[in-house]
Amino acid sequence: MSTRTRIPFLKGHGTENDFVIVPDPENALDLTPAAVAALCDRRAGIGADGVLHVVRSAAHPEARKMAAEAEWFMDYRNGDGSVAEMCGNGTRVFARYLQQAGHVGEGDLAIATRAGVKTIHIAKDGDVTVGMGRARLPEGDVTVGVGERGWPARNVNMGNPHAVAFVEDLAHAGNLFAPPSVGPAGAYPDGVNVEFVVDRGPGHVAMRVHERGSGETRSCGTGACAVAVAAARRDGADPAVTGTPATYTVDLPGGRLVITERPDGEIEMTGPAVIVAEGEIDAEWLENALR
Ligand SMILES: N[C@@H](CCC[C@H](N)C(=O)O)C(=O)O
C-alpha cells in the first residue's frame, strides 16, 4: 500500500460553474494561491473555475466572528488563486457537500462567507435556494468594451463587484479569452466580473460572464443576481418602489437560475447543485506543482 500523503477532495458544480471542494475542518492546509491555481488547472490539475475550501468558522481568522451563526465557512478562491468575497453557485454546491457529508440535516442552514452569513434552503426536489442579501448599486456611470464595441453598464455589488451590460447579441462579447475593458479607470480598484445580457421575454434574460480570476465561466450566481437587479431597474420593476417582488429567469451557458428580489431588497437565488466525484489529491504532486 502506498504511503504517500493524500488530501481528500470532491468535485462539484452548480449550473456548470465547477469547483474543487477541499474539506479542511480545522484549517490545517496551507492552501496557497499557487496550490489553488494548480488544482484548478484543467490540464495539469483536477480542473475547475474555483476552490471551495470547507473550514469550520471557528478555525478561520476571517470567519471566527460568524461562528455563532454559521458553523461552516466557505473560503472561496478563484481559479487563478485569488480570493473573492462571495460565490453564489459556490454557496449552493457548498451546502450540497455539507448535506451529503452529513454535517447538516435536511432543510435550512447558514454558512459564513466573506460577504457575511448566507441562509440556505435545500428543497425536496433537490434545488437549493440561497438568501444572497441585498445588492448595492454604487453611483456613477460605467462602460464595458470588447474590440470596437462598447456599452453603458450598471455597477452592481453583490458582495463582489459586477458590471452588467445589456447587448443586442451575446456573440458580440466575442470569445472572452481576454477580460473586457471596463471604464472609467479606477471604477473597480479590485477588478470586476462582467456580464453581457440579452432579453428572452418578460422577466427572462440570458447572459454570458467573464469572471474576475477565472475567465469566461458557464455560470455565475452573483452575476445572475446582479443581472436580475439591473434588469428590474431598467424595466421599472424596482421591488422597493412597486412593493412587488421581481423575479427573473436567467439562462446561462451552463443552465438556468431563478432570481427573486423582494420589496425589502433581499435577493433569493434558486438553482441546482451537484457533487460529481470524490477522490484524493497526491500531496507530493501538489508540492511538486508549486516548485
Ligand atoms: N462564480 C461565482 C463568482 C466567483 C467570484 C468571482 N469570480 C469574483 O472574483 O468576484 C458565482 O457563482 O457567484
General description of the model:
By secondary structure, the chain is α+β, with helices and mostly antiparallel strands. The protein folds into two domains: 6-127 and 274-289, Diaminopimelate Epimerase, Chain A, domain 1, CATH 3.10.310; 142-271, Diaminopimelate Epimerase, Chain A, domain 1. It is 16% helix and 42% strand. The longest helix is centred in the C-terminal third of the chain and has 14 residues, at 221-234. The mean pLDDT is 96. The protein binds the ligand N[C@@H](CCC[C@H](N)C(=O)O)C(=O)O. Residues 17, 78, 84, 87-90, 160, 193, 211-214, 217, 220-223 line the site of the ligand N[C@@H](CCC[C@H](N)C(=O)O)C(=O)O.
What keyword list fits this structure?
291 residues; binds the ligand N[C@@H](CCC[C@H](N)C(=O)O)C(=O)O; Diaminopimelate Epimerase, Chain A, domain 1; globular; 18 strands; 42% strand; alpha+beta; 18-stranded mixed sheet
**How large, in whole angstroms, is the Cα Rg?**
19 Å
* Integer average pLDDT: 96
Number of helices: 5
Oligomer description: single chain
Low-confidence stretches: none
EC number: 5.1.1.7
Family: Belongs to the diaminopimelate epimerase family.
Organism: Streptomyces griseochromogenes
Subcellular location: Cytoplasm
